Amino acid sequence: MANARGSRGLKKVLVAEDFADIRKMMKILLQMYGYEVIEAADGSEAVENAISTNPDLILMDIAMPVLDGIQATQAIRRHDKLANVPIVAITAYGDLYADQAEVAGCNEVIRKPLDLGQLKPLVKHYLT
What we know:
Elements: E1 12-16, H1 20-32, E2 36-40, H2 43-53, E3 57-61, H3 69-77, E4 87-91, H4 94-104, E5 108-111, H5 119-127
Parallel strand pairs: 1-2, 1-3, 3-4, 4-5
């Protein structure tokens, strides 16, 4: 999984999730799979971290404080260097939010609760 972009030669995944336990579990798994993980606890932090770290993939919770995942995705998509970074929305709120996420620029929408067994193939799909 070599890639010169990460500080250790790893591809970078930004995990934007306001629940610390879920974020921590995703981080542990992604690191076990060989990815560098950047964390964001709200939508504003997700935008800031995306701009400053230029991740290879963003996993974006839709319901977050400060900026929700829709607003954060729209803000990220306004930056040329991030225009083609895959963003996968994660939501527990059904089709309405899924449609809004896709319009905002998300590549895919997956439903909560997230089956952590799906995480590795999902990330691998976007990063290989």
